[in-house]
Amino acid sequence: MATVLIVEDEQNQRLLYKEELKLEGYETVTAADGKEALEKVQEQLPDIIIMDINMPRMDGIETMGKILSKNRKIPIIINTAYSNYRSNFMSWAADAYVVKSSDLTELKNKIKELLAKVS
Amino acid sequence: MNNDPSTFNPKTTIDKLRNILTEYKGRPLDEDLSGMIENVCLGIKNDFTKGDDEIEGTLKNDELSEESKDILERRKRGRRKNDNIIYAIGVGLSLVDRDSKIIWANKIICDWMDFNDSPVGNYCHDFYHCVDVEGGICPYSELFKGEKGHIIEAWITGNSGKRMRIQHIATPIANENGNIESVLLVTIDVTDREKFVQRLLLLQQLGKVMQGTLHLDKLLHLILTCVTAGYAFGFNRAMLFLVNREQNALYGKLAVGPSSPEEASHIWQEMSKKYSSLKNILEELDYSHNIDTPLNTMLKLMVYPLTDRKEIVAACVEEKKTIIIRDADNDPRVTKEFKNILNANEFVCVPLMAKKEPKGVIVADNVFTKEPITDDLVNILTMFANQAASALENVETYKRLEDKMDQLTRTQQKLIRSEKLVSIGTMAAYVAHEIRNPLVTIGGFAKSLSRFKFEDSRIKTNIGIVVEEVKRLEKILNNFTDLGKSHIPEKSSVQICEIIESTCTLMENFFQEKRINLYKEFGPEIPRIMVDPVQIKQVFLNIIMNAIESMPNGGDITVKIRTVNEIIQIDIIDTGKGMSQDALQKIFYPFFTTKSKGTGVGLAVSLKIIEDNGGNIDVKSESGKGTAMTLSLPIN
Fold it and tell me: Which domains does chain B possess?
């Protein structure tokens, strides 16, 4: 069973993602900011990461950079409320860019698609 | 003693007088000069009195002897000869006695004063119309106060109708005891000198007035009025052409002057009543006056390419030289067409030169009075033209400055609006983000709830409502974040008609549902242009959507596409509710809306997109009748 690391500073959203992804049959790990995410990546070695951008302590872009410098294999989906980070070239390093929506269908599809590519 | 009065030699005396007066012209009368005139006048006086004494002596005999008859006859002849000579020198002369009655006057002064009968026996003030004399000083009475040779000037109209400036000089004639017996009044025509002075004065005054005139029409009028003003240059008609460098042609701009001899005499009569001096003309110059004359209308239709050297006005500009035409009928420099339009045989073309650059041409003639155009006049006119040209240049510079200012103001306004848009956008993006996160959570959980089974069906319905409303909010947020985004158009070659077609196809269902008739009027050969097709389509969608929403009970939408002067113009006209003028002012402001469910972003974004693509949007609307949106996109 694939493990999804959810990096999201808003507690309720973390909870929503956790429940929804569990229902899809994934193991979930959560982190509230970039620093925590780096630790979780080391500890758990997730199969895929869902990364928010605007977070305290360390933002998603910086975190992604650090993760990629150690492990290029884990696919990362940027999940943000802003659509304009799409033009930030750092975000091009991510495997997918999904604008946050109450409808999680797009996000779920992307996870499935990327995991299928890796395996 | 010489009995023949003709050998008294009045000619020498008169020649002397003539020489003195010629020398005197324009110079102040000093002691020497008045003394000289006095001497000459004494000579004239002697001429007249001597002969008379002689005749009187002869007449003392009761019978008229043959000898005395002969003397009388010779005397008469001598008198006539005298009169002729005095007439020839062109000076008005009269003798006035101590009772201010005229003893004698020559023909010239009678002509000038418009006096047909002999003035002898009249009071001098009746003869000289002293009321018209400037300053009201009588040279005659001044003399008796001891003021010698006082000069006064006046404007008169002679019996030939010629308006002239005259000068009176009074010289006392004393008897042996030194008492003043009579006064000789010498009157000279100083019209030419006066005209010359007036012209110089005019140049100086005009220089000042013209340099301060920044309105082109006013300046042109001012220039031509001066060329035609009676006291200045006094041309019958004047026409002005201006160089248009872009078209490389000369355009007729303004003509001043009568179109017919009848009109001419009418205007000049008016003028002489109305204006007494140049200052008056300048002060009372009515710029709207005389614009609709046939001459002016005709002139405005005249255009000559500068390359066409056969046309005299074009040649005048290209050669930068004044051209005087004395005989247009037989002068190869004048084309038949130009001659026909002008209808004058003698005329002058003066280039308007500003810093060696020709700005235009003044053409002036004396078609009605046929007065010859003198070289002197042309020289002064050329000087005047240079001043006029530099004033014209001032106007041009000012106009350019004004245009630049306008442009700057427009750009500034545009900048302010787009800055407003960006700052609103930045704020909107921030708010959108802050709201979007909790919305995602609310909507997400509501959706996950809908998977559960509830006994009460209302729960499911209500959850459905939460989910739908969250979706709507999210959609609005998407619009908000659009405002802040920079729109860098990704331009490609686009056929606008095709974009409209595909937009309309997309909206076909709406049209049917809302019972809207769509009419399309596409002009022929609409060229392809470089714009961002996605953005333009979004604009069409926005505007057509607005049109549909303004017609809840159905109506017509007309889409017109045509090319107008290097611009593609797209009109989208509806028969909907329309807008008040107040609303019309604000529709492009972000967050302004007249719709109950609108966000007020659509048109603000649309305008920004069209401006980013180099175009503009114009709106006309009438409450209750409908709205017409006009989009213009440049072809290049």
Answer: 5-189 (3.30.450.20), 195-400 (3.30.450.40), 487-634 (3.30.565.10)
